[in-house]
Design brief:
It contains 12 helices and 8 strands. It is of the alpha/beta class.
């Protein structure tokens, strides 16, 4: 089957964010997901805000100058490198994804201390050995590993906790893990319906509980305010938070590698 005959999370995400880089099969999956859960546009939007705030915080408050964004999706401004380089022009970013449409846009990302790696999150060895990563990021210096809205597309049989542990183990002390993940804690039935829509189209989705998501941070030191709904993670001052926890249904957190 052609990669364009099946919806891809990156392109569905792009559609839900109001982008243009998707196909009819992606739009159909997204619209079916909206029928199953009318709040389905909220998590992508709030994930983007979480990602931006995380990068700003790590670059400004912790001096992080290297970012590894896995599951980057279709470029949506501001991207990680744009946010980081606004604070530190020498900040380096490697984007990782495995969708042909993302690959087609890779050139737009590779400007000044940036690179794109075409790899699957599940293939940790290939990902970490990729020349684009090794030529851009120094794994002997602190790195912010960004796993934003990607792990709910990794089934239990693919051993997601092992994947995260192997990635973290490749990073030096002083690095950080930033992670967000869909949850069914607030409206399990709605997300079961959405997962069924994706499964029908051959895309796995595994929403997890807060306790399960916390397991990805085992052995790491969570920064304040800990693992929380992403809208509650260091929100922008003066911004009126209108989405409910149930509408957001995404937990996020950042932890330090000791």
């Amino acid at each position: 089957m052609s990669p364009f005959e099946r919806p891809h999370p990156a392109r569905v995400y792009d559609y839900l964010l109001g982008g243009r880089e998707h196909f009819p099969v992606d739009r159909a999956a997204a619209e079916a997901g909206l029928v199953a859960n009318p709040s389905s546009r909220v998590p992508p939007r709030e994930n983007r805000g979480f990602l931006r705030r995380v990068v700003q915080h790590l670059a400004a408050e912790h001096g992080v100058r290297q970012f590894l964004d896995i599951g980057t999706g279709i470029p949506t401004s501001p991207n990680v490198h744009e946010v980081a380089q606004e604070i530190a022009p020498d900040a380096r970013t490697v984007y990782v994804d495995n969708d042909p449409i993302v690959l087609a846009h890779a050139g737009a990302l590779m400007r000044g201390h940036t690179a794109y790696v075409d790899a699957d999150l599940r293939d940790v060895d290939r990902l970490l050995a990729a020349p684009g990563l090794r030529d851009t990021i120094d794994l002997d210096r602190p790195v912010a590993l960004m796993l934003v809205a990607i792990l709910h597309f990794v089934e239990d049989e693919d051993k997601p906790y092992d994947i995260v542990r192997r990635l973290v183990d490749a990073l030096p002390a002083g690095s950080f893990l930033a992670l967000s993940h869909l949850t069914g804690d607030f409206d399990a039935a709605a997300w079961e319906r959405v997962a069924a829509v994706y499964a029908r189209d051959g895309v796995a989705m595994r929403v997890r509980s807060r306790e399960e998501i916390a397991g990805f941070f085992d052995g790491l030191e969570l920064l304040e305010p800990g693992l929380t709904v992403v809208t509650r993670w260091r929100p922008d001052a003066g911004v009126d938070r209108r989405a409910t926890d149930a509408q957001v249904s995404v937990y996020g957190g950042v932890a330090r590698v000791r």
